[in-house]
Amino acid sequence: MFKSFVRSLATNANTQVFKLQEPPKYVLGSLRSFPSLEPKEFVALPNDFLNLPTRRDILWSAVVYEEDKAKIETTQVFTKGDAIYSHKKLRPQKGSGKARVGDANSPHRYNPIKAHVITAPHDWSTELPNKIYNKAMATALSEQYKDGKLYIVGNNESSELNESDSSIIDFKYGYPETIKQFKNQHHLKNLNLLFITDIERSNLTKAIEGDKVKALTKENVEVRDILKANRVYIELPALQWFIGKYL
Amino acid sequence: MKPSLISLQTFKPSLPAQPAKLFQIPKLSSISTKDLPNNGFGKGTYFFSKTKFGHWRVYKKVQNTKITTELTQIKGDVLSLKHDLIKIAKLNPKTVTANPTTGIINIKGDVVDEIKQLFNGIN
Lengths: 247, 123
What we know:
The complex is a heterodimer of chains A (247) and B (123). Chain A has 247 residues and is an alpha/beta fold. Chain A is 32% helix and 13% strand. Chain A has 2 domains: 174 residues, Ribosomal Protein L4, Chain: A (3-Layer(aba) Sandwich); 51 residues, no CATH class. Chain A is built from 8 helices and 6 strands. A 6-stranded mixed β-sheet of chain A has the order 2-1-3-6-4-5. In chain A, α3 crosses α4. The longest helix of chain A is centred in the middle third of the chain and has 17 residues. Chain A is elongated and about 95 Å long. Chain B has a domain of 76 residues: SUI1-like domain (Translation Initiation Factor Eif1). Chain B contains 2 helices and 6 strands. In chain B, a hairpin with a 2-residue loop joins β2 and β3. Classes of the chains: A alpha/beta (247), B alpha+beta (123). The interface between A and B is large, with 40 and 42 residues.
């Protein structure tokens, strides 16, 4: 029945049956100045990077991959080969009325020696296909974008800036007071902030010392950093680099 | 035969890592409203395309004795495509399952050629 139906379709194809439509190509992001976060202009960014559905399974895989990669085995455990005790036989083979024993270096005795154990250094890193990791990065950024928590700082088509503002994520002075003022101005107290910069910004690094705020250059950003943050501030060149690398 | 020191394997020097290409921002004047998310896509509409090699993304999936036909990388309203497939191909609704999160539709049995023919006839 199916085949006969398909054959009939070949003669009178009805183009209106399947509701096929091209998906959107771009989403709009607003470029802002820093530190006032005043929106200056719109910028078109790929829909496949900033408007992905939330795939918790992919995010989970990526975070586990990152945690495993960061894990370092440092615990020193004694094994039988370490021979922390003497090789002397504990008691004579015969005549004690007790079981036969060898030396004290046996893992079955009450001692810190373990028979089979993972010792340092050990590589805990696991594998994940690049495609999955890249999609996780895009999904994490999409999540922040859709919640309106992704702030893009930059200057695309030479828009005018205020005197106190700049098109990069950096403060004029590198004192802790500047980040306090920034938080007060935008009502960001007790929130996890993440600043993603193209290159290292010295004043920003000095200002956030001893604070909950995180500032990373584009190469050092991980999926879990983006997921943990309540607000993400990213420079436009860094975002362009992200799209080039992870899309 | 004597063992030879010359390896028969071809020597492939590894290429230096290329820096990631920067995404070039298009001009806003070059974008129409159809390219933006509020063009109505996903509300009863969907997107199902060929691969870059020109094949429909319809595959025969063999899991021991269980054989199904899988349609992958469906964007938009996956459930709507499922209902349309059932209607057009007159399938038993119980044999078709859809996963809207991953964009996959599974049909019981091997109907790969028939589904491909269906899409070829329409596009």
